[in-house]
Here is the input.
Amino acid sequence: MRQYAILRLLLAGFLLYFAWPVIPSAASQVELVFWGGWLLFIVLVVGANFATLLQITKPPIMEQERVRSRQTLNH
Here is the structure.
């Protein structure tokens, strides 16, 4: 389900849009570590969703299509 991956990419971009102006104003070491970790997390989210979009990896279990097969009783 590609639309979920696209929605997650849009959400990550939206969050990055609001966080980007605040990142350069980080003054202390704790703030720099926080924003560095946050940016690393965003990169991982974007990379995973692009991998799903490009079909490099399988989508999560909840998003995979179910193939229904008819079960018959063989006596």
Notes: The chain has a mean pLDDT of 86. The helical segments are 2-19, 29-53. The radius of gyration is 19 Å. The CA atoms of residues 10 and 46 lie 9 Å apart.
